Each structure stands twice: as C-alpha cells, then as structure tokens.
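Chapter review: from sequence to fold.
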Amino acid sequence: MGINGVSSYANTYTYGNVKNENVKPSKNKFKNVSDYSKYLTNKYKCLTPCKNASVLIDGSVMQKACGDEKTAKWLEENLAIMPDVIRNAQKAAIGHGSKLISVEFKFTNNGTEMTTCGIFGETGTDSEIDKWLERMKEDKEKEDKKTENMIAIEATTKNKVGFDTYA
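The token string follows.
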C-alpha cells in the first residue's frame, strides 16, 4: 500500500454529470460578509467540515459574492453540487485502484481548486467522508420535505375563502 500523494486540480469547472438548476441564490440582502457566511453555512451543509473533507470559500470571493448577484449565483450553484462532486471524486479514486482519504475544495479568486489525497492498493471509501456526505443528504431531504410542506400549506391557504357571508 503506497500513498498516492496529493493531487491538485485548479480552475477545473467540470464536475462530471453534476448539475443543479434548482438553486435559488440569495438576493444579496445581507449587511455584511459575516451574515452572508452564516446564511451559506446554514443552507449548504458542505461548509461544515469533517475530519477528512472540507469546502472552503476564500474571503475575497465571499466579499465579492456578498455584493454581486452573478458571483453569488455562481457560488451557490457550485455549493449545491459539492456532495455530488465529492462522491464523483470517491468513484474516480476507486476507478484508479485507490481510496480517497482526504479532500479539500476551495473557491478562490482564480476559480476553484480541489485537492485530494488517496492510497493506492486500497479501494473503497473513507468512513468519515461517507458519514459527512450522508449527513448532508439527510439534511437536504429534511429541507426538501420542509419546502414541500410549506408549498402545500400555501396552496391550501390560497384555496380557502376567508370571508363568511351573512344575509
């Protein structure tokens, strides 16, 4: 078993067959970068790192996204697909006969950077990364269910007549 070293892919915008067109970014209604950062961390669970995986946003990118709707849209679309990007990195490592044991994804002024570390001669997935991805999946499912419930409540509320008529 040998160490696969560190691989770094800078400015790579292709993530396999991963696409998320349902992202509705914020309308930049935040007073400062700190508030925007809190919003992103609550909405995109990939920003809460685990032992062997993290997704980071450079401060200058955060500042720009806070004030620029186009950058915010780009950032949020990419944050939304991070779990799939990291799953694809795991599959790619397995396909090359190795095991992904660490992954870091950064959003920088120069684009995006993904740094991975794997072990040759050992396949499978890292349990810490698997738990992290599963937690994000569960949180997404809860959010989707909450959204569905809100839509259903709005639909039933709109269909009710709120006035009683008396003769």
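Two observations follow directly from the output. The chain has a mean pLDDT of 79. DSSP finds four helices and four strands in the chain.
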